[in-house]
Amino acid sequence: MSALAYHLAPQRGLDGLTRAAQEIPVPGPDQVVIRVRAASINRSARS
């Protein structure tokens, strides 16, 4: 199964923000997978 993920390239600011399909990881023993439905980008990421 896959999901859409956003990746922010270092040193590129918001121009480095890309969206791509990514496989959902399978958790190992004593691990969990957390779905994030919303996140914010603060001004320091806009450099």
Summarize the structure in words:
Helices cover 0% and strands 30% of the residues. By secondary structure, it is mostly beta strands. It has one domain (2-40). The protein has a two-stranded antiparallel ribbon with strand order 1-2. It starts with a strand and ends in a 24-residue tail after the last strand. The mean pLDDT is 86.
How much helix, percentage-wise, in residues? under 10%
Give the overall shape: elongated
Q: Could you tell me the number of beta strands? A: 2
Radius of gyration: 13 Å
- Give the termini separation: 34 Å
Number of helices: 0
| Integer tally of domains | 1
**Mean pLDDT level:** 86
Secondary structure class reads: mainly beta
Low-confidence stretches: none
Order of the strands making up the biggest sheet: 1-2
The H/E string reads EE
- Amount of beta strand: 25-35%
| Largest β sheet strand count, sense and barrel closure | 2 strands, antiparallel
Q: What order do the helices and strands come in, and which of them pair?
A:
Blueprint: E1 2-8, E2 17-23
Antiparallel strand pairs: 1-2
Provide tags for this entry.
47 residues; mainly beta; two-stranded antiparallel ribbon; GroES-like_sf; Alcohol dehydrogenase
TL;DR of this structure?
The protein is mainly beta. It contains no helices and 2 strands.
